[in-house]
Amino acid sequence: MSVTSYQNLNKGELTQLLDIAREAIRGHFSEDLPRPPQLDLYGKKLLRPGACFVTLEVDGQLQGCLGSVAANSPLVLEVHNKARASAYQDRRFMPLTEDQLEQLVIEISVLSEPAVLAVDSEQELIDYLENNRVGVVLSDNHSQALFLPQVWEQLKSPKDFIRHLKSKAGWNAVYWSPSMEVRTFTVTSIKGKYF
Fold first, then answer.
1. Exposed end of the chain (fewer CB within 10 Å): N or C?
2. Where is the AMMECR1 domain (predicted)?
3. 105-130 pLDDT per residue, tens
4. CATH architecture, range 11-112+187-193
5. What is the pTM of this model?
């Protein structure tokens, strides 16, 4: 199977992904065993391997956000699995409860394939980000951290964006290594209420 670019998903396809996430979460509260999506109901584009993140908010507060950078399985299955994981397995939060469903907002972010950005210093990266509000993955010595492009809504300055991203990876604010790898990506996303 080949990986496809998800930058051209249409509104209908994105809505299907949102419905898959809703069903994945709903299945946890039903008496039936939760089942993955039935693959023959979806078009070829949604069946190709895809990487995604599913972000959950309750009353405007983050409730879970898990995903993958590598496209290893069909996008519909990735969305299903990441929705369940974000709702019930994100260790930063208590599992989602039925009481929270009324206020639940789900966002699906489908990632483009991350591209290596050749920079020799943190300042070069900051300069690049001044004009390019993209998602960023920083990797060095078995540590990695990722911010989706949506993080720019909270962290407007590239310097703050990178400082928080380094903190997320467990590095101090001034850490930079000659072996640091920087990858950037964009997302196609949809956001909607659970109900």
1. C
2. 12-195
3. 999 999 999 999 999 999 999 999 99
4. 2-Layer Sandwich (3.30)
5. 0.91
